[in-house]
Amino acid sequence: MERRAFLKLAGATAAGLAATACSAAPPAQAPSSAPGTSLPPSTDVTPPSGPPDWAALRNKVSLLLPGDSGYDSAKRVFNPAFDGFKPAAIAKCAKPEDVQAAVSIAARRVPIAARSGGHSYAGYSVPDGGLMIDLGGMSSVDVQGEQVVIGAGAKLKDVYAALGGAGRCLPAGSCPSVGIAGLTLGGGIGVLARKYGLTCDHLVSAQVVTADGKLRTASADSEPELFWALRGGGGGNFGVVTSFTFRTDPAPSAVSVFSLRFPAGSANDVVAEWQRWLPEAPPELWANVVLSGGSTVGVRISGCYVGDSASLGRLLDQVGGTRTVKQLDYLGAMKYFSGSENRQSFVASSRILEEPVEPAKLTSVLKGRQGMDLLVDGLGGAVADIAPDATAFWHRKAIGSVQIYSQADVSNRSAATKSVAEVVSGLGLGGGYVNYIDPALPDWMTAYYGGNVARLKQVAKTYDPDKVFGFAQAVTRD
C-alpha cells in the first residue's frame, strides 16, 4: 500500500472528508530440465569493449542522448532526489522489438534498466551512465473477458479506469502513477490483498525480453522457473517485461472505505488492538495502522471492506475511534485511496511484521522524529493462502509490512537517511518488501526473498549469466 495515499487521506479526513488461489510450486529444479525452457548460452568471456553503437540503435528506436531536446524531462522519475542521475541514453520503446534492439546493442557494454512508473525508491530505474529503457509507450490496457493484457508501461490510474469500466477487478496498489510492472514484479501489496491476494498472484503470463535479446513467454507451461521468479522476485531482475496477462475477478459492487482517528497518547493501545483485530477479521476487511513521529506519537487506522457500510460498521465497533465511512463502488474506492501524482522527495525503507509485537517496539522509535511515519499495512487472508515458495514473494505468513517513510529534500536528505536507518535498526524486526527497496537495508537479499534466495539466484544464472541487468541490489548468480 502506498504511503502517500494514506498521508493524504489522513489530512483530508481530519478536515472532515466525506467522499472521497494457487497451489504450491513443485520443488526447485534446474531450469534446464523444465519443460518449455529454451536457455540462453552462458558467455563467460571478456565483455565487448567500447560504448554501444547509439547511432545504430537510433535507427531502430526513438533514442534520446544527453543534450537532446526532451532528454532532461524524459529521465525524471517520481523522487527528485535522483534528478542528478544521467543515463548515457534513453530508449523510448513502443513495442517488444524496440526493447529487443536496445538490449541486444547495449548488453554487456553499459548498465541497462527498465523504467515503467519510475517509483524505484533507490532510483534504480535511472541507470547513471547506462541505458534507460523507457516503457511508457507500451501502456495499453486490453480487457479480454475474465483476463486483461496490460503493457508494462501502464500506470495504475489507467489500469483501474479500464477494469472498472468493464466491471472487472485486479488487486493492486494505490498511487495512481505507479507502474504495473514494478508493482507486480515485487509482489503487489494493496488494499484488496486480504480478499483477492497480491497482484502477482493473478499473473497468467508475461512477455519478457531476456539478456540474450530474445522475447519469451513466461507462464506455468512456458519458462516456468522464470514465471515463478517474476511473481515477487523484484523489478529489474531476469529481463525486461513488455506485457502482462492477468486473471481478473468480478468487480465488487460495494467497497466501504473508512478512517479512524484516536486521541493523543493512545498509540500503544491502538497498535495492540489492531494486531488482535485484523488477523481475526474476515478477509473482506483490510486495514493499516499509521504511526506519526513527534513529541507525541500520533496514530490512525485506515482501510476498506469489500461489502456494505452497515457490515463494516459492526467490525469497526470492535476498535472504536472517531470514524469516517463511505460506501463506494470498486473504481470509486480505488480513486479514494489515490495519492498525489506530484513528484515527492522522501527516504524510505521497510521491515516485515511476522507476528504481533509489543506495541512500544513500534512507537518508541518515533519519539521526537517529526516528519517520519510508520505505515503498517495488513496482510493475511488470501495472501497467506499461498505457500511462501509457490511464488518468489516470501512473506506469505506475515501479518503486515512496515514502511518507514520520512520526508526529505536537498537540505535534510542526509539527516533523513540517517534517521530512517536508525529506526530500521531500532525496530528489531527482520524481513523487507522489495518494492520499498533500500540500498542500506542490512542483509537485503534475505530480507526481501527469505528462503527463496537460492532458487532466485539459479534463475538469474540461467537467464542472465553475465549480469546484463545487474545493479546494486540485483539478484545475480553470485
From TrEMBL:
<feature type="region of interest" description="Disordered">
    <location>
        <begin position="25"/>
        <end position="52"/>
    </location>
</feature>
<dbReference type="InterPro" id="IPR016169">
    <property type="entry name" value="FAD-bd_PCMH_sub2"/>
</dbReference>
<protein>
    <submittedName>
        <fullName>FAD/FMN-containing dehydrogenase</fullName>
    </submittedName>
</protein>
<dbReference type="InterPro" id="IPR012951">
    <property type="entry name" value="BBE"/>
</dbReference>
<dbReference type="Pfam" id="PF08031">
    <property type="entry name" value="BBE"/>
</dbReference>
<feature type="domain" description="FAD-binding PCMH-type">
    <location>
        <begin position="82"/>
        <end position="251"/>
    </location>
</feature>
<keyword id="KW-0560">Oxidoreductase</keyword>
<dbReference type="Pfam" id="PF01565">
    <property type="entry name" value="FAD_binding_4"/>
</dbReference>
<dbReference type="InterPro" id="IPR036318">
    <property type="entry name" value="FAD-bd_PCMH-like_sf"/>
</dbReference>
<dbReference type="InterPro" id="IPR006311">
    <property type="entry name" value="TAT_signal"/>
</dbReference>
<keyword id="KW-0732">Signal</keyword>
<dbReference type="InterPro" id="IPR016167">
    <property type="entry name" value="FAD-bd_PCMH_sub1"/>
</dbReference>
<feature type="signal peptide">
    <location>
        <begin position="1"/>
        <end position="24"/>
    </location>
</feature>
<keyword id="KW-0285">Flavoprotein</keyword>
<dbReference type="InterPro" id="IPR050416">
    <property type="entry name" value="FAD-linked_Oxidoreductase"/>
</dbReference>
<keyword id="KW-0274">FAD</keyword>
<feature type="compositionally biased region" description="Low complexity">
    <location>
        <begin position="25"/>
        <end position="37"/>
    </location>
</feature>
<dbReference type="InterPro" id="IPR006094">
    <property type="entry name" value="Oxid_FAD_bind_N"/>
</dbReference>
<dbReference type="InterPro" id="IPR016166">
    <property type="entry name" value="FAD-bd_PCMH"/>
</dbReference>
<comment type="similarity">
    <text>Belongs to the oxygen-dependent FAD-linked oxidoreductase family.</text>
</comment>
